[in-house]
Amino acid sequence: MNRTLVLCILSDDRPGIVEALAKTISQHDGNWLDSRLSHMAGKFAGILQVNLPESQAEPLQQALQALKISGGIQVISSEASERSAGGDQKVLHFSLVGNDRPGIVRELSQALASHQINLDDLQTSCSSMPFTGDAMFSARGVLQIPAAVDIDRLQEQLDAIADQLDVEIDLLEASSDLVQ
Prior knowledge:
Blueprint: E1 2-12, H1 17-27, E2 31-40, E3 43-53, H2 54-71, E4 74-79, E5 89-99, H3 104-114, E6 118-128, E7 135-146, H4 151-165, E8 167-173
Antiparallel strand pairs: 1-3, 1-4, 2-3, 5-7, 5-8, 6-7
């Protein structure tokens, strides 16, 4: 019988972190499945899914904890769980861009949560606008939307938030066609 674990990783960024993790997982007959790894502000962070024999789960978790002592790699481990289906879901992508200011993510996430929309993926960045140097905020992500949600009503709510925050928010079909 196999077990699937989800691992969250945080470390000061340096070469060899992924190699140390992969080596440790491999030593415990683990199979590295999905992962999202990134460098930000001098840190290396990630989340990954590992499948391994049940008899190796506890030894792997102990070996991963030893990486904190030997290499400064913090690992939090959790048993993977099945996502509840919750009925039919529609997948949409979104993009947001505009002048940076506090509250953009809060307002967006509040609107999504009010419709029981799950934010499956979120990537944000701040950069400087050409010529002015003003801070520009951009976000993009993937949404799991319950079938009962009225997409036109959601778009209206997002348009109101966009006007309030002076940003542009677009909903996109999975094929990247703009939702009207």
